[in-house]
Amino acid sequence: MRVRENVGIAVACVAVLWAVYFIDLILPVDLRGFGIRPRTVHGLFGVIASPFLHSSFRHLLSNSIALVALLSISLIYSRKLTVEVVAMSILVGGGAVWLLGGRNSVHIGSSGVIFGLIGYLLTIGMFRREILALVVSCLVFFYYGWVLYSLFVVFPGISWSGHFFGFLSGVLAAWSTRSEATN
Questions:
Q1: Domain 2-176: what homologous superfamily?
Q2: Is pTM beyond 0.90 here?
Q3: Cα 121 to Cα 63, 64, 84, 149, 158, distances in angstroms
C-alpha cells in the first residue's frame, strides 16, 4: 500500500510541472524567462522557479518519466530524506548554476532535480552502509547509470551545469543525511 502512495505522490509532483507548462502556454508572458540567469539579480528567482519550467513538450515529457521513476524510488526508501534531497538539489544545485553557470544563458527544467536524485540514490549505499540503501544504489546504477555520460559531454541547448551541479548536490545530500533516520 505504501508503494502505491509514494508513486501517487511522485505522479502528483510531476502533475504540477504539467500544470505550469499548460499555464505557460496560455499566459501572455513566457514563464521560461524566469529560469536561472547566472549572476543576475533577476535570475536568482530562477533557482526556485527553474525546475517547474520546460522549453517544450518533449523536454517536459522526458523529465517527467525520469522524475516519476526516481521520485518513486526515493520516496519508497524515505519520504523525509527525499524532501531534503529535492530541496538541496533545487537550492544548492540551482544556486551553483546561478553562481557558476554560463553567462547569457537561461537554465530551465527539472534535470537538476533528476540528477540530484540520481546522485543521491547512487551514493546512499556507500554513505549509509545499509543493505537496503546498497540495493537501491545498485538498482539505480543499473537503470540510470548510463545517463552519467552527460556529466562529461556538453550538448548544445542542454544545461550541463544543471546536470553537473544537480548530481553533486545529490551526492552532498547523501553524505549529509548519512546518519539520519529514514522515516
A1: Rhomboid-like (1.20.1540.10)
A2: yes
A3: 17, 18, 13, 17, 23
